[in-house]
Amino acid sequence: MVLAASLILGSGPGLAQDTASKASVSPAAVADTDTGSLKSVADFDSIADEKERSIAIFEETGKVLQDPRCVNCHPRGDSPLQGDDMAIHEPPVVRGEANFGAPGMTCNTCHGPENAEVVAQAEDIQSIPGNPNWHLAPVEMAWEGKSLGEICAQIKDENRNGGKTLAELVEHMASDDLVGWGWNPGKGREPAPGTQEQFGQLYEAWVATGAHCPAA
């Protein structure tokens, strides 16, 4: 998925909790080891300190940001990755000057406007990804191999995020169709955790709490 995001945050049950109750809960207490789902914004209401709550929320979005569905299109090199093991793309391709492949082998040579199921291929190739805007993220947006803190700082940096403000990033994450492909990746691929709506809500809550980053 390419960095590209606003949803109205729902009020959570934690808003009715008193400060003393919140103060007794640490960020670690709301950690979720289930990488197939995403916590809701309300699940973080118990963290009293706003900065700690902001960091905890961003760490939850990291389940998506560091998922193969995202990282495969945000590689540090000039070739996209593929599969849950994030292997180098086969057949060999390169990003090209416009992140759309080299002349004669652009992304849309194989990738159409929507996912396409295939037959008589290798067992692990059941469909070809597709989206009208399919392309590789610019190299300045690469986050393969980076820590979540490094990715966070990069996402906030307008020199490395396509010139987007935080508000524009929220809109991008929550609504961009190519980002949304991560939850509809085609047959044979595991979707990103949760839903794009949940991801967008978490991202907006992160911005609303100061957009603080984990330690790099």
Describe what you observe in this structure.
The protein has 216 residues and is mainly alpha-helical. Helices cover 28% and strands 6% of the residues. It contains seven helices and six strands, in the order αααββββββαααα. The strands form three sheets. Strands 1-2 form a two-stranded antiparallel ribbon. A two-stranded antiparallel ribbon has the order 3-4. Helix 5 (166-175) runs antiparallel to helix 7. The longest helix is centred in the N-terminal third of the chain and has 16 residues, at 50-65. It starts with 18 loop residues before the first helix and ends in an 8-residue tail after the last helix. Mean pLDDT is 86; it is low at 1-33.
Keywords:
216 residues, mainly alpha, two-stranded antiparallel ribbon, 6 strands, 6% strand
Percent of residues in helices comes to 25-40%
Per the principal axes of the C-alpha atoms, what is the gross shape?
A: globular
**How many alpha or pi helices?**
7
Query: What is the structural class?
Result: mainly alpha
> Ends: how far apart?
22 Å
